[in-house]
Design goal:
The protein folds into two domains: 214 residues, 3-Layer(aba) Sandwich (Rossmann fold); 75 residues, Alpha-Beta Plaits (2-Layer Sandwich), CATH 3.30.70.100. The strands form three sheets. A six-stranded mixed beta sheet has the order 6-7-8-3-9-10, sandwiched between helices. The protein has 339 residues and is of the alpha/beta class. The termini are far apart. The longest helix is centred in the last third of the chain and has 22 residues. The chain contains twelve helices and 14 strands. Helix 4 packs across helix 5 and helix 8 crosses helix 11.
Length: 339
C-alpha cells in the first residue's frame, strides 16, 4: 500500500535557525495522524514543506506516491491545507468565497454548485452561506476554512492547529467532523499541542521536539511504553533542588517505583512512574514523614501523552511551551534594544 504521506529525513533552516532537523514519518490512507509538540517544535514547518508552501533543504516528501518537490502541482491536487490562522475576506459571503476557491482549483463550472452544497451540508454551514464572513463567529469561520480545504475532494486533508481559539462546543464539532471524514476514507494529518485533542482523535501519533521525531505509535502504545501509573509529588510548593534530590534518593528504592524525574520547571516537583499499587500514595507519604520531609501535594493517575513527552525529554509540554515563549520574548527585547 502506498502511504498517503511519506516524509523521510526532512530538514529545513531559516538562516541560522534549524526549524526541522530530521523528521521522518508515514501516514497510511484513511487514518487520522497527529503531530504533537510544543510551539516551535517544527510542526508547522513540516506541514508547509509537505504542502509545497516552502522548499525543504533536504529530504523526501510524497503525497500518495507523488513527490511534492518534483511534481508540486500534481501533489496539490491530492491535498487540502487549512492553516492555523483563518484568512477570510470579510466583504465576501461564504458562498462567494467558496466559488473563488473552486475557480482557483479549476473545478469545472458545472460542478461548482454541487461541490459547495456537499461541503456546506457536511459542515452545517447552510444558515451562514449567504452572509458576509465578517459576521461569522470563530467557530463558523473555522468551518468555512475547512470547507475551502475540502472543496476539491482531496485524498489528504492537512490541518495546522484546527481548534486553536475555539470554544468547547466548536472544538467538539470539529472533532466529530474529522471522525466523519475518516469514516468516508479521507486521510487527515493534524498538528496540535492540545494533548486531549490528539489522544481523542488520532489513530497514530508522532511527537516532535526541537525539530526531531522522538516517538511514534498509537496513543495506547506510547502510553504503555511509559509503564505503570504516574504519581506527581510536591514536597513544598517550590522545593529546593537539594530537597527534591533527597526525596528522590529516598523513594527510588521502593519496590513499586520504576522511575523518578525531577521537574525543575514546576518547582522541583517529582514525577514518579510506579507499578499500580493500592497503597502507593500512603507508602510514599509515610516514607517522607519518617525522613522528616513534608508533602505539599500528591496525586496518582494513569499515563498520558504528556507523560510520554516527559519521559522522552525530561519536561512536560507545558514546560516546553513556556520555554518557547520565553525565548520569543528575549528575541523581541533584543530587537528593540538594537533599534
Amino acid at each position: 500500500m502506498i502511504p498517503a504521506v511519506l516524509i523521510q529525513n526532512l530538514q529545513k533552516s531559516y538562516g541560522s535557525v534549524q526549524a526541522v532537523k530530521d523528521v521522518s514519518l508515514e501516514v497510511q490512507p484513511g487514518e487520522i495522524f497527529g503531530l504533537l509538540g510544543p510551539n516551535g517544535a517544527g510542526k508547522t514547518t513540516t506541514l508547509r514543506a509537505l504542502c509545497t508552501l516552502i522548499t525543504p533543504d533536504a529530504g523526501r516528501l510524497e503525497v500518495s506516491g507523488i513527490s511534492v518537490v518534483d511534481q508540486p502541482r500534481l501533489a496539490r491536487q491530492r491535498l487540502g491545507y487549512v492553516a492555523q490562522e483563518v484568512a477570510l475576506d470579510k466583504v465576501l459571503t461564504g458562498r462567494e468565497l467558496l466559488q473563488l476557491q473552486a475557480a482557483l482549483y479549476h473545478i469545472p463550472r458545472v460542478k461548482i454548485a454541487e461541490r459547495i452544497q456537499e461541503v456546506t451540508d457536511l459542515l452545517g454551514l447552510q444558515d451562514w452561506l449567504d452572509l458576509k464572513t465578517g459576521t461569522y463567529s470563530g467557530g463558523i469561520r473555522k468551518r468555512l476554512d475547512l470547507a475551502s480545504g475540502l472543496l476539491h475532494q482531496p485524498d489528504l486533508l492537512v490541518l495546522d492547529e484546527p481548534t486553536v481559539g475555539l470554544d468547547i462546543e466548536s472544538r467538539v464539532a470539529v472533532w466529530d467532523f474529522l471522525r466523519q471524514l475518516r469514516e468516508n476514507g479521507t486521510t487527515v494529518l493534524i498538528t496540535s499541542h492540545y494533548l486531549e485533542e490528539v489522544d481523542a482523535l488520532a489513530d497514530r501519533v508522532a511527537i516532535i521536539d526541537q525539530g526531531i521525531v522522538i516517538a511514534t505509535g498509537t496513543p495506547s502504545q506510547l502510553k504503555d511504553k511509559v509503564g505503570g501509573d504516574r504519581i506527581t509529588l510536591r514536597i513544598r510548593e517550590f522545593s529546593p533542588v537539594e530537597e527534591a534530590e533527597k526525596a528522590k534518593a529516598l523513594l527510588q528504592p521502593l519496590p513499586f517505583v520504576q522511575e523518578i524525574i525531577i521537574n525543575n520547571a514546576q518547582g522541583n516537583s517529582l514525577n514518579l512512574v510506579v507499578q499500580p499499587q493500592s497503597d502507593a500514595l500512603f507508602t510514599i507519604q509515610q516514607a517522607l514523614k519518617d525522613a522528616g520531609l513534608p508533602t505539599f501535594g500528591i496525586a496518582q493517575s494513569r499515563p498520558s501523552l504528556d507523560d510520554v513527552y516527559l519521559a522522552a525529554t525530561g519536561r512536560t509540554l507545558l514546560d516546553a511551551e513556556i520555554d518557547a515563549a520565553s525565548h520569543r520574548d528575549l528575541k523581541a527585547e533584543k530587537k528593540k534594544s538594537m533599534r
